[in-house]
Amino acid sequence: xxxxxxxxxxxxxxxxxxxxxxxxxxxxxxxxxxxxxxxxxxxxxxxxxxxxxxxxxxxxxxxxxxxxxxxxxxxxxxxxxxxxxxxxxxxxxxxxxxxxxxxxxxxxxxxxxxxxxxxxxxxxxxxxxxxxxxxxxxxxxxxxxxxxxxxxxxxxxxxxxxxxxxxxxxxxxxxxxxxxxxxxxxxxxxxxxxxxxxxxxxxxxxxxxxxxxxxxxxxxxxxxxxxxxxxxxxxxxxxxxxxxxxxxxxxxxxxxxxxxxxxxxxxxxxxxxxxxxxxxxxxxxxxxxxxxxxxxxxxxxxxxxxxxxxxxxxxxxxx
Length: 319
Ligand code: 3HC
Prior knowledge:
The protein is mainly alpha-helical. Helix content is 65%, strand content 2%. The protein has 13 helices and 2 strands; from the N terminus they run ααααααααααββααα. Strands 1-2 form a two-stranded antiparallel sheet. Strand 1 and strand 2 form a beta hairpin. Helix 6 packs antiparallel against helix 7 and helix 6 packs antiparallel against helix 10. The model has no long low-confidence stretch (mean pLDDT 95). The structure holds 3-hydroxybutanoyl-coenzyme A.
């Protein structure tokens, strides 16, 4: 008698056994719908963040103070585009096309990181983004190199290598300004003051108010919680700020020997919700620019698809 196909319960038990054994899950594996949608949501929003994240720094490419700084910034922004492509490719292994993911971004069904809704007012912001925002991204992404979904974990390994260059170039930019003229030092301090708290918000709401963290950790999508990643980042950033000779805008920031970590002040979660809800300084601009670039690039996508179809099936596209 033909062996019956395993029922839903058996497949779910098999899935959980793979997760519990810390196995990588691959596109060919059976995945519960909720796991699939949770991973897709996170990878897609990560990809959207990488691409939208090109805008704040991209605005400074034509205004970089030297050819060296322009070349570094060009390389970084180009890397972010590549990170977005790796991540869209990882998301597509879950069965949703890139065009659909971009449509979900444009109609608000999917998000991108709140941090990119803040303006880059001076050249020092490029340094603060590199040092703080990419530093936070590395803290988060290093943990994600062990996420349970294979294509996502592998994308993270590649991305983390490039992020370390991003953080170092930002740190070095601020190092130069902090040792420059008094006006340059003030510019660097002003940028750090403006980017510090929004960077802490990047790690998401407190664990106690996170609707996804418990299940995400149970399925090893997330390997470290929002609060723990935030704490790791603060503990890393404090000595770096001291080395830069810049201060962090938190009067409650201090070493707590009992905890073995730095205590820090309260985060303005109302500001976080406002920005995530679309009412940040640059939300409308970021989506307007993204929509315009997507529309302007439609002909390139059509040409690439026609070329691929012609060379895949010469008869399919009329000469
Ligand atoms: N910005 C916007 N939305 C956020 C957010 C943020 N900083 N933090 C949380 N949210 C959203 C979540 O997406 C979720 O909304 P949803 O259900 O509509 O998706 C809601 O707030 C609840 O948050 P949770 O913490 O419960 O959600 P997650 O479990 O998904 O955790 C996360 C949030 C920690 C951001 C997680 O999704 C994650 O680790 N994502 C991958 C890393 C990432 O996306 N980083 C973004 C920056 S990319 C970057 O920095 C590029 C670098 O090169 C500069």
